[in-house]
Amino acid sequence: MHSGRFRVLLDACVLYPAPVRDLLLTFAGLHLYQPLWSEEIQNEWKRNLLANRPDLSEDQLNWTIGRMNDSFPGANVTEYQHYINSISLPDEDDRHVVAAAIKGKADVIVTFNLRDFPQSTLSTFGIEVVHPDQFALNVIDLDENAAIKGFEKMAGRLKNPPLSDDDILSALKKAGIRIGSKKLQNLLD
Fold this sequence. Notes:
The chain has helices at 12-15, 18-29, 39-52, 58-71, 95-103, 119-122, 132-142, 144-157, 165-174, 178-188; strands spanning 7-10, 34-38, 76-77, 108-110, 128-130. Helix 9 packs antiparallel against helix 10 (178-188). 54% of the residues lie in helices and 9% in strands. Strand 4, helix 6 and strand 5 (128-130) form a beta-alpha-beta unit. It has a 5-stranded parallel sheet with strand order 3-2-1-4-5. The longest helix is centred in the N-terminal third of the chain and has 14 residues, at 39-52. By secondary structure, the chain is of the alpha/beta class. The chain has one domain: 3-Layer(aba) Sandwich (Rossmann fold), CATH 3.40.50.
């Protein structure tokens, strides 16, 4: 991976869990990669989170999405719909993700749903699919000092309630970032 120009489409399933979203966007904020998404991806994670978390409001999640779009101008991919019909995936409902990746010139799609995005299909578009745990590890390996700085910055934002590094690493592990969490723990020790 090369810093700054490496373009990564984040699937809804990696934006849904707050710890994963926060870690990945913190890394992006340090220019370790360029994040991409679409309004459809944003709406998908928001809809699912609202369905599963009645304690959250649509206004809260719209605020989060607004902050994401403000923090990463150019991350929101548009005008990708014409690619959808040319894409064949096990779940047709995921074609919009690949279409946005194509339009956004993504190098990688980061998703928990690897089997829904066969590499044989994505390779025809020059796109790789990567699990968020592996992606986090790759980013950490790219620049360990920046990754630690990012983790500390993320921890500093989590004040209500304040969380220890161990609490945050535990939340990341629970959310599926196991190897990346272990690597961060080793670097923090």
